[in-house]
Every structure is written in C-alpha cells, then in structure tokens.
Amino acid sequence: MSDRPLLNRRLEGHGSTIFAEMSALAVRTGAINLGQGFPDTDGPESVREAAVRALRDGRGNQYPPGPGIPELRTAVTEHQQRFYGLNFDPDTEVLVTAGATEAIAASMLALLEPGDEVIAFEPFYDSYAASIAMAGATRVPLTLRAPGFRPDLEALRDAITPRTRLLLLNSPHNPTGMVLTQEEATAIAALAVERDLLVVTDEVYEHLVFDGEHTPLISLPGMRDRTVSISSSGKTFSFTGWKVGWVTASAALVAAVRTAKQYLTYVSAGPFQYAVAEALRLPDGYFTEFREDLRAKRAILGDGLAEAGFQVFRPQGTYFITTDITALGEKDGIPFCLGLPERCGVVAVPTAVFYDDPDAGRSHVRFAFCKQPNVLAEAVTRLKGATLRA
Ligand SMILES: Cc1ncc(COP(=O)(O)O)c(C=O)c1O
C-alpha cells in the first residue's frame, strides 16, 4: 500500500464525532449520558403504533417514492401552514430526507461549488463543517459569544465576501440554545437579499422554544425563493432513530437538493414516513405539552447545575444547556468532560470542539436535558456531591 492517507483530504480532521466518543464513554463507565441529544423515552404511543401498522400492512416496506410518500409531503405542508401560515406545494416544494443530516449534506453538495464560502454560526453543529468540507467549500464562522450568544450582525456583514454563496443558519441553536429574535431574523434576511445569498436553515428544534418564538427565515420578505428550510421528526416527536427529515423550499431549490439526495440514500425509512405523517397531524396540545415538559426539565437541570457551581447560560430553545466551568476553577472543557464520568458518573460534551477557534468556547460544557426528571435529578445530585472545584 502506498503512503497516501486513505481518508481524502477534504475529510481530514473530521474523524469520529464527539457525540459517538462521549456516548461510548458513558456506556463504558455506566455514567448518566447528558452528552448526546437523544431522549431516554420514546415519543407518542400512537405514532409508534402507526409505524407498526405500516410495517404490518406492507406500506413502505419497498422503496418509497424518491421525494417521499405523498401522505408525508402533504402532512409537512399542512404543518408549515398550521404553525407558520406558509404554503408549499407537496408535489414540487417538499423533499423527504434521511433526517435533517442528509438534508443538510444534500443541500451543501447540491448548492456549492469548490471555493464557495459558507457562513455559519459558531459553535457549529458538527455535521455542518463536514458537509461543507465534502462539497469542497470553505466555512466561515460567525462566532456566538457568551453570555447571550447573540449573532453580531455587523460581523456578519463584514464576513460576506464575493465568494460567499450561502448562510447555513440554525435557530433554535445547538449547542448554545440561542433563538433568533424576529428583529435578528429580519435583519439577516435583509442582508441575504441585499447580497443575493442562498440561506439554508436548520430548524430541527422549531418546537422547542421557551422564550420568544420561532421565525422561519423562509417566511420573511424576499426569502421564499432563496431559502432551503430543513426540519426533522427526530427531536419534535422523540424518535431520533427513525431519521425522517424534510426540506421545504421553492421547486427549483427542492429539485437541486433532490438531485444530490437521490444519490446519497435515494430513499429511506419507508414505514416510518407513514408514522411521521400521522405525527405531524397531532393536535396542537401535543406540541404545547412537549415544549412545557422540556421547559420543566430545563428548570431541573439549569437550577441544579447552578447549585453545583456552574455558570449556566439559560437556553431560550433546544434541549441543551451550555455552562461555563471557570467558576469551578477549571479552564478547559475537554479534560473536564473526559474526567467527569470517573469523578461523578455524568457525561457532558465540551463545546470547544464545535469552534474553529476553540479558545472561544474553551471553558464551555454542554448538558442535554431531554431525559426523565428522575435521571436529571440524579445527575444533579451526583454533580453537587462531587468535588468539582479544581
Ligand atoms: C442542530 C441539529 N441539526 C440536525 C440534527 C440531526 O437531525 P436528524 O437526526 O434529523 O438528522 C441535530 C441532532 O442533534 C441537531 O442538533
């Protein structure tokens, strides 16, 4: 074999994801896993039953249609109408994907040329950097800084160059919990229009906004034909293993993204698509209860972390809390998180790994609160009982 590295240059440095690493650590040490963002209870029984019914009835057991089953595409359009007053054509303006992750990757592969620049909030959700890299494009960070993690709109304007092709935006934002205000979203949209940029929005936490409200950028003036809006059932319905996501966008953008998507997975999750179509039609009460349940969990973990001595940046949305460990006499989240399972049986994620400039998040540690209240309470007891101070 030649000395040439097996992994191509574009993916160098994108080894294993921090989530896989920390989840493996949780399993190895038997610690409570507040690292990876998956719930420890499944979503609604009726939705699970819908998947079983589809499997038994032979719906979706063979390749579903490339853009997704019509029932799900229609349910996605109804959801966009119900929550945001947005109208999409289920035949041409919706694409079902293998989770939001595939939608993001397909969007990057479809819309970017090598050398294009993509501006994204830093800390980045980790698949963004890899997807941009696979497309041969360059990521340009717009750093969200504690304590508020607000986007600096002047810095955004300055970051736009003639090579900037698109903005890859995530609100509610993982890991900081920042939710764009209507004013911020409007200002970003105006800039995208002014500079003729495409915008790809990752809205997987759209139903987890505790303070403020979710504004899809595609709903703002001038954005309908330049925005690829992405969401997914994993977070909203607590079935992260099903990997059913979707894109809503103009027919031209959907056609472009579909071109890349069809050669990635072609299709996926046949029977689950039927179940998610039912999930999207759940009454408003489901979505409200889901949010209020997570709001209560935010309080349990947030208060507990503060009592344990962390500086807590209370999230406006998502199911993550970012903390600062400086108050514990610690400086670096990476060794802190690697040692935490041994010290007290809890796993968390150092957010420095989501920055191009790790110093910007060196002392930040993220905890997930999508766990049962007794699990969160036990994690808090362990964190308070441990000698965390360096
Ligand atoms: C911001 C963000 N986008 C996308 C995803 C992945 O979504 P999916 O499981 O639908 O691929 C996650 C999961 O943690 C996320 O936090």
Automatic annotation (TrEMBL):
Pfam families: Aminotran_1_2. Its cofactor is pyridoxal 5'-phosphate. GO terms for cellular component: cytoplasm. Keywords: Aminotransferase, Pyridoxal phosphate, Transferase. GO terms for molecular function: kynurenine-oxoglutarate transaminase activity; pyridoxal phosphate binding. InterPro entries: Aminotransferase_I/II_large (IPR004839), Kynurenine-oxoglutarate_AT (IPR051326), PyrdxlP-dep_Trfase (IPR015424), PyrdxlP-dep_Trfase_major (IPR015421), PyrdxlP-dep_Trfase_small (IPR015422). Residues 31-383 form the Aminotransferase class I/classII large domain. Belongs to the class-I pyridoxal-phosphate-dependent aminotransferase family. This is Aminotransferase. It comes from Streptomyces abyssalis.
